[in-house]
Amino acid sequence: MTLKTIFALCAATAMALPAQETFTTLHSFDSTDGANPGVVLIQATNGALYGTASSFGANGAGTVFKMTPGGTLTTVYNFCSESGCMDGVLPEAGLLQATSGDFYGTTNGGGLGYGTVFKITPGGTLTTLYSFCSQSGCADGANPFAGLVQGANGDFYGTARNGGANSGGTVFEITPSGTLTTLYSFCSESGCADGAFPVAGLLQTADGNLYGITLSGGRPADGGTVFEITPTGRLTTMHKFCSQNDCTDGSNPLAALVEATDGDLYGTTSGGGTSDLGTVFKITRSGTLTTLHSFDRTDGSAPGAVLAQGTDGNFYGTTNSGGARGYGTIFEMAPSGTLATLHSFCEHLGCTDGRNPGAGLMQATNGTFYGTASFGGANQDGTVFNFSVGLGAFVKTQPARGEVGAAIGILGTDLTGATSVSFNGTEAAFTVVSGSEIITAVPVGATTGTVQVVTPSGTLSSNVPFRVP
Fold this sequence. Notes:
Elements: E1 14-16, E2 22-28, E3 42-43, E4 49-53, E5 63-67, E6 73-78, E7 96-97, E8 103-107, E9 116-120, E10 126-131, E11 149-150, E12 156-160, E13 170-174, E14 180-185, E15 203-204, E16 210-214, E17 225-229, E18 235-240, E19 258-259, E20 265-269, E21 279-283, E22 289-294, E23 308-309, E24 315-319, E25 329-333, E26 339-344, E27 362-363, E28 369-373, E29 383-388, E30 396-398, E31 407-411, E32 420-423, E33 426-428, E34 430-434, E35 437-441, E36 451-455, E37 458-461
Antiparallel strand pairs: 1-2, 2-29, 3-4, 4-5, 5-6, 7-8, 8-9, 9-10, 11-12, 12-13, 13-14, 15-16, 16-17, 17-18, 19-20, 20-21, 21-22, 23-24, 24-25, 25-26, 27-28, 28-29, 30-31, 31-35, 32-33, 32-36, 34-35, 36-37
């Protein structure tokens, strides 16, 4: 790891910030349990957090790990456990927990040499579902850098940043059993006007379509694109970055989009803006893009991570560099674009809080945000941290939409003893599986709105409206 630097260590791992803001380092990787965890964590139905470390571990090829909200880490799987690394190497992306309860993800390398799609059970049994470059000329894509999203039809959708019919990367669909279909090959238009190198994952919204970004292409400026693609593969380019003078609209987006409660899509670019250090933007479904903030290094730079909309309606994210110490920041941004820097990494002597947070934040159902830093920590191999801004507990539905009768999982904290579940005021029958999970079904008469769970300690509401078609 050429970027690692050895610093003097400091024992302190928690730091009180103004008001109710508190940063805590939960775990410092030490290479035996993996290193460089540059991914967004997920909260599983068992209440634990899951993620990947892109390198090291028992075989030097990365790991899948599980962590309690309190910070106890367990290695679930070490990649390159199979001969020839057919199980994959370099898991650069986070995991997805499917409706089956199993986890799905990708590796950037291994398999036939160009990356894989895998399934792994909570107990750690891994199955390689697909090895990229299985087709002549890598027409099926190569090097999936991002994770997967499960569509309403039960299949998974993702991107491969390289390969495809035109070597510009692909969008693909894969069934839970591993049958892969290439939906689109980028650089299909003259001069790659449709974009090239989709390094981020996809977002499926309530309209059923998928939305994503490309790192480059979109000529004439080659600053990358925002695109919409139907599940059948019809692609529409919504915006070409660097279309404004001096790229004030941003350039080279690296992170997936997020659908906000107002229905618009929000994202970041790693470059461009008034200082050419990256932006936060909003884009409507019709393709109208608004630059909400341009970073200027003092408040961070190179924001290459997906945003998280908190239960307070504000967006929370990270920058990979910049800030008070130059090693990245955590920021909060109102939907209007007003931004505040909440934490600058490497605040602790020796960077025990971590540095260069290459991934975004995840708000767990206890109200606290969790994230990873790719480097730094007590051993300079990266960290897992949490960050509290005083937001309360809530519940999250999986999935976030469904027809009457559809089975729905509800994730939360301290759900044992729950006495009521309702969908926008309509009561539903339910079963408490554990303190972190309830199973229910969309009741007759339910309409789009808030899901509420009544527990002995109070009423918990869903973080986003549940949508009933």
